[in-house]
Amino acid sequence: MFKEELTKAAAEYGISLNDMQMEQYNRYFELLVEWNEKINLTAITEPKEVAIKHMIDSITAYDENLFKDGTTVIDVGTGAGFPGLPLKIFCPEIKLTLMDSLNKRIKFLQTVVEELGLKDVECVHARAEEGARNKKYRESFDIAVSRAVARLPILSEYCLPFVKKGGHFIALKGMQYNDEAEEAAKAIKVMGGSKTEIRPVKLPELDDKRAVITITKTMPTPKTYPRKAGTPTKNPIV
Question: Are 59 and 13 in contact (CB under 8 A)?
Fold first, then answer.
């Protein structure tokens, strides 16, 4: 059932998935539903909705010019693994770090990684504000991705500190994406970002507006950022 829905959604979006990818997405779906009964991972569990709103939606972040063999990617506030894990299955050549503040979710993610046999994936239990101050992760990634974590001014402070100079921050955003991009202009600049590209996307069978926002990092993030946990949310840079 899920495989059929995903095959259909992928075809409508204009991508093709091989048998191994199909098996991995299907097992991911099974584990998501199974673990969701124990810990709250997602409100979306119906096969068609998971196929479109989780798997294909995550893949919209993919850009063949950015995701190459050995590209280092961090998914900040990954939750149940979106968009990082669907991107890894779609583009196995990337080296992925999944970061989340809840240890229960990290255990779920580690289970998925093991069951799917995914290589070059690290699951990290940390808040974004703390993780970005760790020398191992600060300004060490080609790409940071994030979906549905916070509004863009806040998200820029969470994610851009992880991105190396010349790298990119990719945010998956809903219908208010234009407003958020304008609102985030100052925060993006302060964090060392410059060029912002907005690519509207259309998901199969959905009429809602959404977009992928790609921000290029051209300067290092000042050492004072990100601010301590909770501050970006309470006092965003706008």
Answer: yes
* Residues that constitute the known binding site: 77, 82, 128-129, 147
Known binding residues for S-adenosyl-L-methionine are 77, 82, 128-129, 147
The answer to whether 127 and 102 are in contact (CB under 8 A) is no
14 and 22 in contact (C-beta within 8 Å)? no
- pTM, full prediction: 0.97
Domains, the chain, in order of start with CATH, read 61-234 (3.40.50.150)
Per-residue pLDDT reduced to its tens digit, 19-75: 999 999 999 999 999 999 999 999 999 999 999 999 999 999 999 999 999 999 999
Encode pLDDT of 152-207 as tens digits. Answer: 999 999 999 999 999 999 999 998 999 999 999 999 999 999 989 999 999 999 99
Residues listed for the chain: 238
Handedness of CA 109, 114, 119, 125 (dihedral sign): positive
Report H helices in the chain.
Answer: 2-13, 19-36, 47-49, 57-59, 84-90, 103-116, 128-131, 152-159, 177-183, 185-190, 231-234
- Residue 141 to residues 51, 59, 73, 95, 220: CA-CA distances in angstroms? 28, 19, 6, 10, 12
Pairwise CA distance, residues 138 & 160, whole Å: 9
